[in-house]
Design a protein that fits this description.
binds adenosine-5'-diphosphate, Rossmann fold, binds zinc ion, 15% strand, five-stranded parallel beta sheet, single chain, 213 residues, 9 helices
């Protein structure tokens, strides 16, 4: 099961991907998570990516393509993977096709999550993430039991620096310009499964499972 989650920032890709990981035992591959870890560690990759991420712009294609090529070769991806936040440009999607072809694999489904822009802004500006396990919360829509503390592992919750309203608006316009053309790209291959991203997290998950099974 080789899957892609496609949708604007805040659509719920990470939230749904984590639920699929639990259900199907295939890994979530998030270029955003990989890049944030590199920034936190201060590696060469992190140094390259930091400015772009803080400005809400895309990290250059060749950088993220290299990351993905390496990641998909790891043994935990043998039975499948869930790409979350990659590809984000047509050149990235073309590079992904080549990488998969070399591996004798191909994408099975491209799940798109559709959410209106005002709702995306509300979701992103209220998002909180666990420092320790990566679990996702929302201060209003999906709050933890105790403020600032992860229900799952007790870790500390933090707000991403790029989840402020100004950077969010820039990320949404980058999505419109550079990423939304991918819907057409995958539509032509007959791979797009459209999902309404509004409503309860659990109901959206049920829709996704129905499509996959
Ligand atoms: P993405 O990975 O697409 O950027 P996330 O999964 O991180 O999106 O979700 C963004 C924010 O919206 C998080 O705070 C999350 O808890 C919240 N969220 C996710 N799905 C829903 C939903 N169906 N309804 C309300 N809030 C949601
Ligand atoms: P979100 O979950 O809100 O959609 P991500 O965590 O996927 O955000 O991405 C955060 C930032 O990391 C992006 O704004 C961008 O700077 C960088 N990034 C992540 N994935 C990619 C990618 N595939 N191509 C270019 N930049 C990326
Ligand atoms: Zn946690």
């Amino acid at each position: 099961m080789d899957l892609i989650f496609l949708g604007p920032p805040g659509a719920g890709k990470g939230t749904q991907a984590k639920m699929l990981v639990e259900r199907y035992g295939i890994p979530q591959v998030s270029t955003g998570d990989i890049l944030r870890a590199a920034v936190a560690e201060g590696t060469d990759l992190g140094k390259k990516a930091k400015e772009y991420m803080e400005a809400g712009k895309l990290v250059p294609d060749e950088v993220v393509i290299g990351i993905i090529e390496e990641r998909l070769k790891q043994s935990d991806c043998e039975k499948g993977f869930i790409l979350d936040g990659f590809p984000r440009t047509v050149p990235q999607a073309e590079a992904l096709d080549k990488v998969l072809e070399k591996m004798g694999r191909k994408i099975d489904h491209v799940l798109t999550l559709d959410v209106p822009e005002e709702e995306l802004i509300r979701r992103l500006t209220g998002r909180r993430t666990c420092k320790k396990c990566g679990a996702m919360y929302h201060i209003i829509f999906n709050p933890p039991k105790a403020e600032g503390v992860c229900d799952k592992c007790g870790g500390e919750l933090y707000q991403r620096p790029d989840d402020n309203e100004e950077t969010v608006r820039s990320r949404l316009s980058v999505y419109e310009q550079q990423t939304s053309p991918l819907i057409d790209f995958y539509e032509k291959k007959g791979l797009v499964r459209k999902i309404d991203g509004r409503g309860e997290i659990k109901e959206i998950f049920d829709q996704i499972v129905k499509i996959l099974e």
